[in-house]
Design a protein that fits this description.
With about 375 residues, the chain is α/β, with parallel strands linked by helices. The protein has helices spanning about 65-80, 90, 100-115, 120-125, 145-160, 175-180, 200-205, 225-235, 245-255, 270-285, 300-310, 355-365, and strands at about 5-25, 25-40, 45-50, 130-135, 135-140, 160-165, 185-190, 215, 240, 260-265, 290, 330, 340-345, 355, 365-370. It folds into 2 domains: about 5-120 and about 355-370, Enolase-like, domain 1 (2-Layer Sandwich), CATH 3.30.390; about 125-345, Alpha-Beta Barrel (TIM Barrel). The longest helix has 19 residues, at about 65-80. The structure holds 2-succinylbenzoate and magnesium ion (MG).
Length: about 375
């Protein structure tokens, strides 16, 4: 069945987080989220979420830059490309350099649309095979170590299979020491969000004694060479997040030895097409990948679940229950996690969750309709 794209309905919704989320680059208390709905001429539609944040601190994009890219470039380029299948979108949008979160929100919506037209769950439509996915949590920087230990205890109790804690200079070894001594056997990782440089190699080496599953993105996004130098000095595997935007980046990181694990974020890599290429490449190289998170609403979370069912996703991801983020999600039912720390891929068509359109309408602070002509 050929797609005939007609229009994009862009919305910005505001959604307060239940608890602030703090990383080495800043603190988020409420999300401004771009929800993308792409219609085709038959009236069918698909949903996507742009994972750009409010500020350009994780990467260069923001919801505001993404809004411009989608309205001014993505829509007309899709029109000119006469897209007939979702797997053509990634290549068609390659002319737009960077801005992968902007492109990825639309690309994901078109995959959902195509899955619904094919009357299939999205996860099957993109080629996923793991009906159950393994879940971990990402715990932000806390006020003090007691608060951190309490959070870790709560998430372990809930069943999550892997705990990741955020670190930054002066809040690193002591946090890991405290968590590891209280929880000697858990799968534990740390994420620095690029807060260190090679000058910190002595400090980063101290982390080797805590049996961490990985150290995520210690150095700057462009520092593949420095990550390789660091990896040679460490026993703990490095995992790259911010550094990996494309399958070409994954290949370079692999050739250089910059990491041993890759975090794939659907938005950061520009959508399901590129995510699939990265996990295929990594599966060939026996490099484990897992699904990262960007504090998504239910729409982005549902796409993350679908992506996580691809065969290369072998480690627990940062895909966790809606209730960890929101009083009330914008999808029904909300995403829940079993006591074994798993999510079952939904059986419904497309993303497999109903979008609560009344709630989306009530949360909308900006809206724009763009024709794909
Ligand atoms: O580095 O993985 C990250 C959130 C915002 C920006 C970057 C990151 C994160 C997270 C949260 O770690 C993951 C989640 O729970 O969605
Ligand atoms: Mg990260």
């Amino acid at each position: 069945m050929k797609l005939e794209l007609e229009r994009i309905d862009l919305r910005e919704i505001e959604l307060p987080l239940k608890w602030p989320f703090e990383t080495s680059f800043g603190r988020t208390t409420r999300r401004r989220i771009m929800i993308v709905r792409v219609f085709d001429k038959s009236g069918a539609y698909g949903y996507g979420e742009c994972t750009a944040a409010e500020d350009p601190f994780y990467n260069h994009e923001t919801i505001d830059t993404a809004w411009i890219i989608v309205t001014k470039y993505v829509a007309p380029i899709l029109a000119a490309a006469h897209i007939e299948r979702a797997d053509q979108v990634n290549d068609a949008l390659a002319r737009i350099r960077g801005n992968r979160m902007a492109k990825g929100g639309v690309e994901a919506a078109i995959w959902d649309l195509e899955a619904r037209l094919a009357e299939k769950p999205l996860w099957q439509h993109i080629g996923g095979s793991q009906e159950e996915i393994a879940c971990g949590v990402s715990i932000g920087l806390q006020q003090d170590i007691e608060a951190l230990l309490e959070k870790v205890a709560r998430e372990i109790e809930a069943g999550y299979q892997r705990i990741k804690i955020k670190i930054k200079p002066c809040q690193d070894v002591a946090l890991v020491e405290a968590v590891r001594s209280k929880f000697p056997d858990i799968l534990l990782t740390v994420d620095a969000n690029s807060a260190y440089s090679l000058a910190d190699i002595g400090l980063l080496k101290q982390l080797d004694q805590y049996n961490l599953m990985m150290i995520e993105q210690p150095l700057a996004p462009g520092d593949l060479v420095d990550h390789a130098k660091l990896q040679r000095e460490l026993n703990t595997p490095l995992c790259l997040d911010e550094s990996i935007l494309t399958v070409a980046d994954a290949r370079k990181a692999d050739e250089l030895g910059s990491c041993r694990i890759i975090n794939v974020k659907l938005g950061r890599v520009g959508g399901h097409g590129e995510a699939k290429l990265i996990q295929e490449f990594c599966a060939d190289r026996a490099t484990p990948v897992w699904c990262g998170g960007m504090l998504e609403s239910g729409v982005g979370r549902a796409h993350n679940i679908a992506m996580s069912t691809l065969e290369g996703f072998t480690l627990p991801g940062d895909v966790s229950a809606s209730a960890r983020y929101w009083e009330e999600d914008i999808i029904e039912p909300p995403v829940t996690v079993s006591s074994l720390g798993t999510i079952t891929a939904p059986a419904g068509l497309g993303i497999g969750y109903e979008v609560n359109e009344r709630r989306v309408e009530a949360l909308t602070v900006r809206r724009e309709e763009i024709n794909i002509i």
